[in-house]
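Issue: ligand-bound run for pyridoxal-5'-phosphate - logging full I/O for the record.

Environment: standard queue, default settings, no custom constraints.

Inputs:
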Amino acid sequence: MTKKKKFNKFSFETRAIREGSFRSSAMEHSEAVYPTSSFLFNSASQAASRFKGDEDGVIYSRFSNPSIEMFEKRLASLENAEDCIATATGMSAILLTCLSFLKSGDEIVSTPSLFGATLQLFNNYLSKFGIKTHYVSLTKTKEWEEKITAKTKLIYLETPSNPLNEIADLFKISEISKKNKIISVVDNCLCTPALQNPLDFSIDLSLHSATKFIDGQGRVLGGAVTGKKKLISQIKSTMRTCGPAMSPFNAWVLFKSLETLKIRMDAQSESAEKIATFLQNHNKIQKVFFPGLKSHPQYKLAKKQQKKPGAVISFEIKNPESLSAKKNAWNIINQVNIFSITGNFGDCRSTITHPASTTHCRITNLERKKAGINNGLIRISIGLENVNDLINDLDQALEN
Ligand SMILES: *Cc1c(COP(=O)(O)O)cnc(C)c1O
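Outputs:
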């Protein structure tokens, strides 16, 4: 085994390539994948010391595996975090966080501008165990403070939100959480650490669906939570018992993905800026939701918190609440040639979807309305194709 080098004084790009590497005695240059459920011990006493925690080392892949640890170390470094835990999916990262810090009678303060399955987790599952969620407007920091009671144990949000790209003020939210001794959690899925580091704004935990931009090629599912050692170790205990672990193969894929994360995010975000400007000037479009446009209500805040606006754009066609809005939006989606019709985003292939009838179809009409998702809304995620090809593709779809 090689001596562990530290790269924390280097810049993001260097850490993304060099941090977290672990080599076997074969000295492979490209890091190996360790597809094994368990690990051997030299003796009964070594087994006992490992299980007791007296000796560092791997035991069983539900809670220790070299491929998974490589991914965790690298992502922790990119998030400027002390520690990280990888999980099977983004949803299991959220679930483990909730299981670790909440008990019956506790409350969450959150916002309706959440990923659809997260809303369902809070409303349909945590509620069964006596955990209540209060919802406030993502962007109105005062409302967050007003909903906090002695029972509040978690503040939970996404910024930018999906699909409407609203921006929360991370610094103000973290101040509220510190003042009230509540754990603040940000789902950093849309930006990834290449564009935003919530922990730099004193947020306690930054979590991810690695399935999206971190993978970037739509191959595997994965999730992660990053933050202070003290908090992550509690989530690690929950993982050891509850079990939604990342597979070593997925960890290896995602570890490699981090090497290209920054150049992908920069390129995809720059293309998205051009496409958002094109959409904003198009006569068939009523409104574009993209934090890189000066017309975005939190344009300045986004510039302060994010290195770039990101690669997800939502837009409303004219008359988005009319009876024919869904048919018109579906027509546009059916007319594009390059964009993939899929609920996923964060791929190097550009994608297009109708949130009201796909990603947000399982929530009630009222919840959709509260989240601002109408039938005229289309969400696109910009990939690595040529930006002019993408603009021309959207142009012909809108003209037809
Ligand atoms: C996809 C997504 C999730 C859930 O991630 P999975 O890996 O699909 O479980 C959570 N939050 C956001 C913002 C997402 O887009």
